[in-house]
Amino acid sequence: MPQIKPIDIVAPGAFGLNTEKGALLLKPQWATVALNMVINRSGRASSRLGWNDQTTNPISGTKQIDVLHEYLTEAGVSQIITCADNKIYKDIDDYTDAGNDITNASAGTADHWQFLNFNGKLLGFQRGQTPITRTSSDFADASYSGTGPDGNCAVAAFGRIWAADADLQTVRISALLDETDYQIASGGATIDMSSVWTNGMDEIVAIAAMGGTLIVFGKNHIVLWADGSGSEIGLSPARMQVVDTIEGTGCIARDSIQATGEGDLIFLSRHGIQSLGRVIQSKSNPTVSLTKNVRSMILEVIGTQRTADSEFDQVRSTHSPE
What we know:
- This protein has 322 residues and is mainly beta.
- It folds into 3 domains: 9-51, no CATH class; 53-117, no CATH class; 144-322, no CATH class.
- The protein is 6% helix and 31% strand.
- It has helices at 276-281, 295-308, and strands at 16-17, 30-31, 37-39, 45-47, 65-72, 78-84, 87-89, 114-118, 121-125, 132-134, 140-141, 154-157, 160-164, 170-173, 189-192, 204-210, 213-218, 221-227, 240-247, 258-260, 264-269, 272-275.
- The protein has a 4-stranded antiparallel sheet with strand order 8-9-10-11, with no helix packed on it.
- β6 and β7 (87-89) form a beta hairpin.
């Protein structure tokens, strides 16, 4: 009679999910199905934590919350800003409270706002909508000196607002510590990305900052700008220059970009989920992704999402250091 032999299964699933080779005989450290699974701090497969309700009185009906943003006031008070059904709210506890609605008078027609905390104010940008600003009460349409931005993406960095125009080719730069002034005489500036793309034409999808570098993401380009003179504010529009360009990949979803670890950005491209740090290191192979083990599944999801949402406005990512 055959003897029963023990099999040691060390840290099952610790390598994560692998659907690319799911039909093959994999080591037990790989998971081929991972429902509600995370890798914990010990590097082992673990169950995702549960949910705690934060809302006492929800939005009536079946309305969907599309945006969550933490706004920190100058006093250090945290407010969770939410968007649903073309409304903007400042409190996630009671949506039946009329004072919770801080929508601007000329309410937008979509909920895909990108919010920025800047100089004690909360700024909002969205495709096809007038930019909005809030200090302490309701939002109001932004008013500018000079020609202000009217695009879908922006970043607050180096004491300025860096925002795209609706033409998807122009980055408008505000004056120092003044999000309302884009006049050149005040220190504002513009970048014409149509003269910067290196591999045919592209369009601005997202703008980010990392360390002392400004990053402009196209769909098929990543362009990095820096200030070689070591400006006190980190990056001076008068002295900035292109320090690197990457062709063959880019960002396809504005809200997929997240800062992780020390000096890295994660973003969604047409190749999957990528790390900017790894892409820079592997410029000869810019398609390297963090999702190679689930590549087919990710590409299928991207294709399905593109059919339903061509601009990927509904794609969101989050990152928690915990």
